[in-house]
Design a protein that fits this description.
471 residues; two-stranded antiparallel sheet
Length: 471
């Protein structure tokens, strides 16, 4: 089936399932957004708001300015804002509202970002060699998002990963499908303002030989860095000279010099936060919306390596991150250099979802909620099923691996962790340690499995490719 297949090829698709999955996702997101906007302080979002409020008041956004601003973590000397100072302008605009109104605006906007990503995936698959896979693919994406623990955690924390996912996939759609590579590159070049490790995605453009997109990304980066230094010269220097080095050597727990309260108060505040209430702006919230002890489970292979040995603190997280990225990138290079690969739109989408997984694994610092980036992998399942060029046994292997990775991404492991934690002394110690180790590494394991399935799909030679090349 060619990429120019008539829209009538979609006739008979269960479009009602897509509508039902959209309603399910909408209901889930609306319910969670309302709950968290009213009852949870949303610690990450409160740190963003604190940065915006600090800038509005002429204060340093990297310093904890409590009680002048809302932070939710008022026992630290430093704020939870770890992004370039130019990013603070977004939250400075939000700080014009009360924190409650800002939370509502942000939380309900996240719903649009999820559906926006679904629209990008749908447009991408519609242009593929198997457009009939677009409807069931986005249906699976919506269903996976509705069930995913990382999405619930993303909404509760008020993070930016969903916005960044939409920005990245939208830019890649322009580059790979719409023929507007330079414009797509401009979008990708802006992404590091939200998460600096988004820079790791740009070398994949070189691998795909998207030189116009590289030029657009370079221009975007140069302009944004220039604007940042023009508006925030002192804060830009502080970010490079102080903020990044401070985070580079931090392993797991905040050093004593970061804490500004007494040891007794630190002990009290360090206890599980889901049953602690805080008052902000005349409104009482829970510090956390639910028992999410696994919210800080690492979704970064680089940081797991960094925290595995105290001696690595001297090396620094950034160097380990670059090393992990270099190794993973070289593996991808070796996997996709085969001349027999047919770069259809659906294989290109699989390639870029795999690239997102590599970025997560190599990131210096990222958490469980960031694995929302893997959810579009669910949309690849119908496209792989419909790919008649794949050998049947190869298709079965790819689908088993990919489905396992998607399911592993969705799982809420808190119950497993709590049971192991509760029954630990009564069980054999090696099994307890292995179980907790697995639960804590689950995000990274999910990334590895999803990337492996997508990589096999991209790498797989179609039926008859060897014969065609020989002739």
């Amino acid at each position: 089936m060619s990429a120019t297949t008539s829209p009538t090829a979609d006739r008979g698709n269960p479009a009602w399932l897509l509508a039902a999955s959209a309603v399910l996702l909408l209901f889930t997101c609306l319910t969670l957004a309302w709950d968290y906007s009213q009852h949870s302080v949303q610690m990450d979002l409160s740190a963003f708001y604190a940065a915006g409020e600090s800038l509005r008041l002429g204060l340093d956004p990297y310093t904890n300015n409590y009680p002048a601003v809302v932070t939710g973590t008022d026992y630290m000397r430093y704020s939870g804002f770890l992004y370039p100072p130019l990013t603070g302008l977004l939250f400075k605009a939000g700080a014009a509202f009360s924190y409650l109104k800002f939370k509502q605006l942000w939380d309900f906007s996240q719903i649009l970002w999820v559906f926006g990503t679904g629209a990008v995936v749908f447009a991408w698959l519609r242009r593929s060699g198997h457009p009939s896979a677009a409807v069931p693919g986005v249906t699976l994406f919506f269903m996976a998002a509705s069930a995913a623990f990382p999405l619930r955690l993303e909404l509760e924390r008020g993070q930016v990963d969903l916005l960044l996912l939409l920005l990245l996939t939208g830019g890649l759609l322009l580059i790979e499908v719409s023929g507007r590579a330079f414009a797509g590159g401009l979008l990708l070049g802006a992404a590091p303002l939200l998460k600096p490790h988004a820079l790791y995605l740009l070398p994949f453009l070189l691998l795909r030989r998207r030189y116009s997109a590289i030029a657009g990304s370079a221009l975007s980066l140069v302009v944004l860095v220039g604007v940042q230094y023009a508006i925030f010269p002192a804060l830009s220097k502080e970010y490079i000279a102080d903020v990044l080095p401070r985070m580079d050597g931090n392993a797991v727990y905040a050093p004593a010099e970061w804490v500004k309260v007494s040891p007794e108060e630190w002990e009290r505040l360090s206890r599980p936060a889901w049953n602690q209430a805080v008052e902000r702006g005349g409104h009482t919230y829970l510090r956390e919306g639910f028992d999410n002890r696994l919210s800080v489970a690492n979704a970064s292979l680089a940081r797991n390596i960094f925290t595995s040995a105290p001696s690595l603190t001297r090396v620094g997280r950034s160097r380990i991150s670059v090393a992990v990225y270099a190794i993973l990138f070289l593996i991808i290079v070796a996997a996709v250099r085969s001349p027999a690969i047919r770069w259809s739109h659906q294989r290109t989408l699989a390639f870029w979802i795999m690239a997102l997984g590599v970025v997560l694994m190599a990131a210096p610092l990222t958490w469980t909620m960031a694995t929302v980036w893997l959810l579009p992998a669910a949309a690849m399942i119908p496209a792989i099923l419909a790919d008649e060029e794949l050998r049947a046994e190869r298709k079965r292997l790819i689908l088993v691996i990919l489905v396992a990775g998607v399911l592993l991404t969705l799982i809420d492991a808190r119950a497993i962790y709590s049971e192991l934690d509760r029954r630990g002394p009564a069980l054999l110690l090696p099994f307890v340690k292995t179980g907790i180790f697995f639960v804590r590494l689950k995000p990274v394991i999910a990334e590895i499995v999803v990337c492996a399935g997508l990589g096999l799909y991209v790498r797989s030679r179609p039926e008859g490719a060897a014969t065609e090349r020989a002739t």
